[in-house]
Amino acid sequence: MSVRRSPLFLCALALAVALAPGEVVEKGAGGGQPPPGPETEEPGCPVCLWRKHSKEMRLESIKSQILSKLRLKEAPNITREVVNQLLPKAPPLQQILDLHDFQGDAFPQDEYLEEDEYHATTETVISMAQHTDPVVQIEGNPHCCYFNFSPKIMFTKVVKAQLWVYLRPVQHTSTVYLQILRLKPVTEEGSRHIRIRSLKIDLHSRLGHWQSIDFKHVLQNWFKQPQNNWGIEINAFDPNGNDLAVTSLGPGAEGLHPFMELRVLENNKRSRRNLGLDCDEHSTESRCCRYPLTVDFEAFGWDWIIAPKRYKANYCSGQCEYMFMQKYPHTHLVQQANPRGSAGPCCTPTKMSPINMLYFNDKQQIIYGKIPGMVVDRCGCS
Question: Hey, what's the signal peptide range on this chain (predicted)?
Answer without folding.
Answer: 1-22
